[in-house]
Amino acid sequence: MSETAELSFEEALKQLEKIVSELESGQAPLEKSLALYEEGARLKKLCEDRLEAARLQVEKISLSKTGAVEGVAPADFS
Q: Cα separation of 45 and 32, whole Å?
């Protein structure tokens, strides 16, 4: 599996879905299941962190009285 920190949200979610599907099938041996579970936990955390950063960025958008965007603070996805 690739370095999870370098994955986009979409790539991480796709890999996580694949892992869940494989684990749900019950076909993987125990050792592989444990490794898949650990990788899935890392991917889940990455997705949660990226979603939280996006939520914070949306919350930092400031609007004028007319509804125009006045400023946006950048999100830190690291």
A: 20
